[in-house]
Specification:
globular; 3-stranded antiparallel sheet; Rossmann fold
């Protein structure tokens, strides 16, 4: 917490929020810091609004939380030894073939099976984590299956400024319009006390990277979760995406991602914003303009801006876990 001894004296408790591939990259990085004792307590809080693929099918058939993003988070926390590497591959294995099992993922079925057996979402995920030897805990954002509803411009025939409601994670992520805002259905889902307790006792909260409107911002729309994030003494790190995402954030620069977050959570106190210099663009003039805009938005938040090369380096907009781990370690040490 603020004012507590730094990592030179003790390790840090970290809560990471998000979903999908972005959270997987962040947790893969933070797991490295668990290994080197910079982080001694790691908790993932995972979006549960997916309605597509194997997760959507299981959600529809069994009325459970969509397990896919939870599975990816658990796989990211597996160790680098033979046991961890094998179980990570098993959890992520997707069935092929032409039958009813095609497209289902082993980890999804394991999680849903334990939910049915134990009757408790959190307890079941803890059991999966123990089986995998996960170096952290995975918790669902809420205990209620939910949908994301977005207000979208540019898709109403004849009226490009009209707002149209688009409902569903897949539908929002692939909309051809411009997303104005999001909400959750239902608007006030139940949250496990384990989630709010973890946020309340954390030293750091990491928000992002990931699909901005469907993996990152939904956390700020859950009332109990939003109140916990505003009340915590933990320092909040916002990790910006490396590039715009077609369907969700087309045309967005780094400052636009941050501005939308502030729009949805104006009371959130942000301590640090982490961005990759390459996300500012390649043209020198455009890069300088983007940087100035980002610095202005970060300063208005009373936060500090950290620029670090955290992409994989092959030109694709993917975070490199080792580089991201180094950036996190520096942020935690310099606070």
């Amino acid at each position: 917490m603020v004012g507590a001894p730094g990592p030179a004296e003790r390790a840090q408790a970290v809560v990471a929020l998000g979903g999908g591939h972005g959270l997987h990259a962040s947790l893969s990085a933070l797991r490295m810091l668990v290994d080197d004792l910079t982080v001694d307590e790691l908790t993932a809080v995972v979006t549960v609004a997916d309605n597509g693929g194997s997760s959507g099918r299981l959600r529809g058939q069994f009325g459970v939380l969509p397990p896919g993003d939870l599975r990816m988070a658990l796989a990211a926390l597996c160790g680098d030894d033979e046991w961890g590497d094998t179980w990570a591959k098993v959890m992520q294995h997707r069935f092929a073939g032409d039958g009813d099992m095609r497209g289902h993922v082993v980890g999804n079925l394991l999680i849903v099976g334990l939910w049915e057996l134990l009757g408790d979402h959190v307890d079941a995920l803890d059991w999966v984590g123990r089986l995998l030897g996960a170096k952290g805990r995975v918790l669902p954002m809420a205990l209620t299956p939910m949908d994301i509803a977005a207000q979208v411009r540019g898709i109403a025939p004849g009226d490009p400024d009209a707002l149209v409601t688009v409902r569903g994670q897949v539908e929002v992520a692939t909309t051809g319009g411009v997303i104005d805002s999001i909400a959750l259905v239902p608007p006030d889902p139940d949250v496990s006390p384990a989630v709010t307790d973890a946020i309340g006792s954390a030293d750091w909260v990491v928000l992002g990277p990931g699909s901005w409107f469907t993996s990152v911002l939904p956390h700020l729309m859950v009332p109990d979760l939003a109140r916990a994030l505003v009340a915590t003494e933990a320092r909040v790190v916002v990790v910006l995406n490396l590039a715009e995402q077609a369907g969700e954030t087309g045309g967005f620069g780094p400052a636009d991602h941050l501005a939308v977050l502030v729009q949805h959570a104006p009371d959130l106190h942000v301590h640090t914003v982490l961005a990759d210099p390459a996300s500012l663009g390649g043209d020198p003039d455009h890069r300088a303009e983007q940087l100035a805009h980002l610095e202005e938005v970060v300063a208005a938040l009373g936060a500090r801006l950290v620029l670090a090369e955290v992409a994989v380096g092959d030109g694709t907009p993917r975070h490199d876990p080792a580089r991201l781990a180094a950036a996190y370690a520096r942020i935690f040490e310099d606070a």
